[in-house]
Specification:
This protein is mainly alpha-helical. Helices cover 78% and strands 0% of the residues. The protein is globular.
């Protein structure tokens, strides 16, 4: 037997099934902490600058998660050497999440270094997975260059004590990193469309779970009638956001991704509809969580301008992302969701005058009205699409 035959090789087993694995869900639990930490960062600094920094950190965390979503759509995370690498990435991601509250303070360098570890772990696994795939290896090489520039800028930004200068450099790093797949093409990437769509749907559920966590954190230990009412309304809002995404839009998007030609067309749709447009959805939910956290703290007082804008404006961002999501997938424009988003933004000044509980009630009523309108107005189309999708999934 030759030495080469006796030497164990690092392996990455290609993915052969569509379902999300338990290890991927386990990995996503760390992202739950990251979302919670981003909300806490903004809650501790409820200013426009604080919200901007929180969203910047969220963007960095999101893009690292996206990389692993693409990776595990190529390789099976529970086979070969990948399982151990995923655990290592979880540990590094946990360190990143723990650093979030002081990402613009004493923990900035540790955040940057740990984040680089998360990203380069993904690159290493992609290199392993592309061993026999020249096209994928070419794309991974380009990704490695963009990642190196982005992570290098994060480290450079962490050298400065001025948080505003640090934030500016980190914003440039994030922009360059996120633009890399768009600027350098997507021909070489591979994915399993059903898995990819399901993975992003689950991350929406995780983000909605963070909004529910925010209710509990905001309520504290004093549970009175106002807190109970706010909690019920908060669940109604979270349920409405779930309905608006999962009732039909996500199903149609998954079918569109499945039906796209394998290669550039399918990869472009995955990049635009899921990697890019799901970020404002998640960001909108995190902003809503910030508003609900502040609401539960003082249900009988008006929200300050920033939390009011976070609650209503964040929900508007979520709806606008749906408008763009639908247009990218089926080239249809959702006038009613655009109108609802505009109305929510227009209500922000009023929210600073009303009790926070009333603002939350207005939000719940508006979202429920939007759902009722769409359910009634598009009843035949909705019924036809859901039956077609059900038949397709059972075929």
């Amino acid at each position: 037997m030759s030495t080469a035959a006796r030497t164990p090789r690092l392996t990455a087993v290609p993915r052969s099934e569509e379902r999300v694995t338990p290890l991927e869900l386990f990995f996503d639990l760390v992202f739950v902490l990251a979302l919670t930490q981003c909300t806490a960062l903004m809650a501790d600094h409820p200013s426009w600058g604080g919200v901007g920094k929180g969203l910047l950190v969220l963007g960095l965390m999101w893009w690292s998660w996206v990389g692993y979503a693409w990776l595990t759509s190529v390789v099976n995370p529970e086979e070969g050497s990948v399982r151990f690498a995923i655990f290592a990435a979880m540990a590094a991601m946990l360190v990143v999440a723990l650093c979030v509250p002081e990402a613009f303070g004493d923990s900035r360098m540790l955040f940057a270094v740990a984040y680089a570890g998360v990203r380069f772990g993904q690159i290493a696994l992609f290199i392993l997975a592309s061993r026999d795939e020249p096209a994928l290896r070419t794309s991974v090489t380009g990704l490695a260059g963009g990642t190196a520039v982005g992570c290098g800028l994060l480290v450079v930004g962490a050298l400065f004590e001025d948080p505003n200068l640090q934030a500016a450099i980190w914003a440039v790093a994030l922009a360059l990193d996120m633009l890399e797949p768009f600027l350098f093409g997507s021909e070489g990437w591979k994915l399993h469309p059903g898995h990819f769509a399901e993975r992003h749907g689950l991350i929406i559920i995780i983000a909605l779970g963070e909004s529910i966590v925010a209710i509990g954190v905001g309520a504290g230990h004093d549970v009175d009638a106002g807190v109970v009412a706010a909690a019920v309304l908060g669940i109604a809002v979270a349920g409405a956001l779930w309905w608006l995404y999962f009732d039909i839009v996500a199903l149609v998007a998954e079918r569109r991704l499945n039906n796209a030609a394998v290669g550039r067309e399918q990869n472009d749709i995955a990049r635009d509809s899921f990697s890019y447009l799901h970020f404002p959805m998640v960001a909108g939910i995190v902003l809503l969580a910030l508003g609900m956290k502040k609401t539960l703290g003082h249900v009988d007082e008006p929200l300050k301008t920033v939390p009011a804008a976070a609650m209503l404006g964040g929900t508007a961002v979520y709806l606008l992302a749906h408008v763009a999501f639908r247009w990218r997938n089926v080239h249809r424009f959702s006038t009613q969701r655009l109108a609802a988003a505009i109305l929510l933004c227009a209500l922000i000044p009023l929210a600073t005058e009303l009790d926070a509980l009333l603002t939350l009630a207005l939000l719940a009523v508006l979202l429920c009205a939007l759902i009722v309108y769409e359910t009634v107005h598009f009843a035949d189309l909705r019924d036809r699409l859901r039956h077609q999708l059900d038949q397709g999934s059972s075929a």
